[in-house]
Amino acid sequence: MRVKRLTLRNFRNYVNINIDFTANINIFVGLNAQGKTNLLEALYFSAMGRSHRTSTDLELIRWDQPAASIEVIFDRQDMENSLKIKLIANQNKEILYNSHPLPAREIVGSLNAILFSPEDLLLIKGAPALRRRFLDNEISQANPVYYRQLLNYNRMLGQRNNLLKKIREGKASTDLLHPWDEQLAGSAANITKKRLESVKKLTMLANLHHRKITGSRENLSVAYFLNGSNQDKVDDLSGWYHEQIKCQRKQDIMSGSTSIGPHRDDLIFSVNGKNMRNFGSQGQQRTGVLALKLAELEFIKSETGEYPILLLDDVMSELDAGRRSELLLFIRERVQTFITAADEQYFSEGKLGKFYRILSGTVT
Ligand code: ATP
Ligand code: MG
Fold this sequence. Notes:
Blueprint: E1 2-11, E2 14-20, E3 25-29, H1 36-48, E4 67-76, E5 79-88, E6 94-97, E7 100-101, E8 113-116, H2 128-142, H3 144-168, H4 177-213, E9 220-225, H5 237-255, E10 266-271, E11 274-275, H6 276-279, H7 282-304, E12 309-313, H8 321-331, E13 337-341, E14 354-359, E15 362-363
Parallel strand pairs: 3-13, 3-14, 8-12, 12-13
Antiparallel strand pairs: 1-2, 1-4, 4-5, 5-6, 6-7, 9-10, 10-11, 14-15
The structure holds adenosine-5'-triphosphate and magnesium ion.
Magnesium ion is lined by residues 36-37, 313-314, 340.
């Protein structure tokens, strides 16, 4: 996948810009608060239909302006595609994919992108939601049907939780739960099945990279943690969810929330059999996250036939020389990459890629 051109109008601190990219490494250099991350954010938004740092689209529109737009021209399987997103204050966004209207929930899977930012270094020690999002983003881009199943599941979950609260307050009857539980169990099983399959592939890919970075001294494995139960023991996921949801019903009514389902699951990363969350050193976590990100790129390549674009926000300064060169070695000539950096010390100018100087919303 190759982004050829990005056009922004009234997006964040950009009034009107047009940038043509190289197929290899694009480096955005500039002082703080000039607009480097804003460019990555525009590319990420084009891929995921949302920002990686805000859930309110309004923040993306240049102050005092009524609307913003992002347009990307990109090659996918050697075909040129265009994606145009218009953000209008207090209205739904409008998306045109190759000039045809596209519902916002269908944008995922058109332009594929993987973002690696310093927050990802929390992947191992941070909250389970981070790990679920990591996995869901990867599967969704390779398999847009999964993304829609996930949106449906989350909608059902919200509705079931509302109902649970009503039952708790005596405003609805418990019988009303049956149809929801039926649907929820089926949907939970589909999502979990896909996640289990993906984790199998991911653990293999991540371990290959991890062994390379550690000189074969360490083995990384990723396991899926299914609501506190051992995943291998569950053959009939749908039946299992039916049982579990039924067992938890009383408690769910009391708490007003659903305690069983893929929204509560987690990933466990281990090195040489030891859980990294508890025992991983800083360096081991960084190596682990880097291996996982590289595995993510390969996962999408193996599922879709093409590497996604890679967005690296300020990570070069977070990685040591060895890990940095492992990363650059992998992406060179393979993955179109967009890197932000406050200074150029990690890139000997001219050799690595194309430099763009970012100065308060201008690009040269
Ligand atoms: P750093 O090196 O600190 O990460 P950066 O170059 O990545 O900096 P960005 O996050 O891309 O910085 O841009 C931040 C700039 O964009 C800030 O100056 C901020 O005031 C401005 N900005 C953010 N949102 C808007 C908006 N809606 N309208 C106008 N300007 C905005
Ligand atoms: Mg930034």
